[in-house]
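Good morning,

Attaching, inline, the backbone tokens for the sequence recovery test we're adding to the shared suite. The designed sequence is right after.
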């Protein structure tokens, strides 16, 4: 299983990467593995705003449909349009080309509530 040290994680299996003042969000390797082959991604519109824990999209695989939950509040500034035609990128490269959205966070201190790679690994071992 792949857990990257340079990311923060939520207990809903989303990851967060800081890029300047913007946060990139995707699903973890564990989450995409649990879903199986992803065949459809429904993503929000740019400018949509979400509070921490809100569902911001839906991923459909050959075996399940799953909501994605935003790990911290913010306004969507970019969505990964590539996923609309190639949702399998989430399986192929969940931490790279398979990212879902980028947000401008409402409150950077919410990052402190997320799990480090070590904490996320421990969380997965308990599940």
């Amino acid at each position: 299983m792949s857990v990257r040290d340079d990311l923060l994680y939520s207990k809903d299996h989303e990851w967060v990467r800081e890029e300047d003042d913007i946060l990139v969000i995707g699903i973890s390797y564990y989450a995409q593995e649990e879903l199986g082959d992803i065949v459809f991604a429904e993503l929000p519109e740019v400018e949509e705003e979400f509070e921490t824990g809100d569902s911001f999209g839906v991923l459909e695989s050959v075996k399940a449909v799953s909501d994605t939950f935003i790990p911290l509040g913010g306004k969507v500034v970019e969505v990964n349009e590539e996923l609309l035609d190639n949702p399998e990128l989430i399986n192929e490269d969940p931490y790279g080309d398979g990212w879902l959205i980028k947000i401008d966070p409402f409150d950077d201190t919410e990052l402190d509530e997320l799990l480090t790679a070590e904490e996320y690994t421990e969380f997965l071992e308990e599940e």
